[in-house]
Amino acid sequence: MGAYQPQPRQYWLLTYPRTSSNLLVKILGLDEQPNVMQGHLQAGYYFLPVLKLMNGLNLHSRGVQEWTENERKQMKECYQSCFNTLNQLLEDAKKKNCSVFVKEHCNHMAHPVSITEEQSGVTLDEAPWMVDFPKIFGQLPTRSKTNETVLPDGFLRQWSPTFLIRHPALAFPSRYRASLDLNDAGGNSINGDRGTLGMTLRWSRLLYEWYSDNLTAQEAFIDGDATWPLVLDGDDVMANRDVVLRFGEILQLDKKKMRFSWETVPEKEQAEMDMRMKRYLSTLIGSEGIVKGKTAENLDIDVEAKKWQKEFGEEVAIRLEKLVRAAMPDYEFLNARKLKAKNSPLAV
Fold this sequence. Notes:
- There is one protein chain.
- The chain has one domain (about 10-335).
- The protein has helices at about 20-30, 40-45, 50-55, 70-95, 105-110, 110-120, 155, 170-180, 185-190, 195, 200-215, 215-220, 235-240, 240-250, 265-270, 275-280, 280-285, 300-310, 315-335; strands at about 10-15, 35-40, 100-105, 160-165, 230-235.
- It is built from 19 helices and five strands.
């Protein structure tokens, strides 16, 4: 008999900025895993061009109802191009009969009408945007009311989704800090929509709830101890090896290819890296393993807010604290559903 070949799946890691997703990808050893294709640019971000175009056209300062016809055309074409590239990866994987692992920030896929309504508090008389998608089983794609992405329901249901979260009081300041280091004018504008679009768990929770409500029992089934969608907390990625190994098992990975230590990236190679990638991977490329002390254990938002005042100034600290506290209900909701080690009595 030949070696066992796991059934190919489409694994989606759904995140927001600074959740330790790069660390997780490194630990999983996806570049050496047999029968697994990973997305480009650190395993994904296929919809990143959408964010770049929004920045370039300065659309964050205006609601979608104020965009010109040309701006709308450019944005719709960008969403479609991103989708086509991602869908091509899936087609290539099917031809090779292998699994796919892709990560994406949830806010990159939220449709502009929903984003505008969230930021303005005003309900728009405009249909949600949706990319064109080939017929599924001979039927035209549909999009349910609770699906606030630009993707049709049928496409979403093709995936086995995992939501990676991290305490907002760690993720949000880290996102702002990186923007400062990169001299990102939009990211530095903590009071503007552009700089704070990723400082929320709203899109993660909405998509998690959509999956929870729409996957059939067969689609959600993993192994009797866990079901899709999954939730991983960045703290566990950094400090709970058993949870990460459990996740690798669910993904049908070769545990011998997973790694919890590695060599630092040579300085010459670091010097040749893209500036943004180098900044966002700074801890990872300069380490030989998981850096301790970056978890939310014993974290107190009041204490952290005082640190932000010293680091960023009072105005930014006040805005950061407001964003963090606003995100906590969604974080706590998702954190309560996070994956546990298999031997845990609370295993999800």
